[in-house]
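Go through the following before class.
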Amino acid sequence: MRKRRTFKRTSMAALGTAALLAGPVGAACSSGPTYEDWAATDGAAGRINLDEVQKAFKDSDSATEFEKRVNEIYEGDEIVLIRSKQDGDSLTLEGWEDLNKSKEIDDQDDLLFEIVKNNDRHEMRGHGSNGYYRSNFGAGNFLFTYMMISAMSPRGYYYSTPINRYDTMNRNRSNYRSSSTYRSQVTKNSNYFSRQKSFARSSYTNAAKNTSASRNSYLSSQKSSGAFKSSSTGVRSSWGSRSSSGRTSASSGGFRGGGGGASVIGFVRPSLR
């Protein structure tokens, strides 16, 4: 009996020591990504799958539907806002990431893409890290017509995302990012970025260096404040645990961040930089 008690005490002591040693490690694992990991994601860089955006533009029956779909495609932390304006005979639709969370487009935000309509032709143009992208297409006139009729903005634009829709868009994206459909979207995005890097080559690489002053300021602010640690854009980063299926999940149910607190579960994929 004495030997058993001694063994039990020894075992408990060993477990206690192990717990003390494991504690800091567990805390470190659940503290979120490093800045370098976060900054290496496409969402942090402002990259977006413009093939999917172009398809959404053609398929959408309203501005609301287009805005919702763009924010499902995009992997960044902030909401993408839309505005449409006229410049002479041209109509231009722009997509901006609301980096300062003001719920409206201003000079602290980052332009991701624009679609320019001249006569019956459209051109998709990427900006910033998407600057390598140019594509001409013919369909999609309905959405411009819809925005012109809506005329909801008092600032001289035909259309801009209403401020009162921001919170709904944020909730919708949060729900979407906790779904299996989002994981499928991430896979599509991964394939798109791989194709673009292979096709555009140096243009793709150089675009990553042409980030806007607003994007650079945002990255700097995220680093100094540590806000990146609660990011929801870590779907392709190296943080989190890898399972046999190739998926990652953050400790204790996933990271909770800009998407409104949704757990983020995604696929690990290599950096394309």
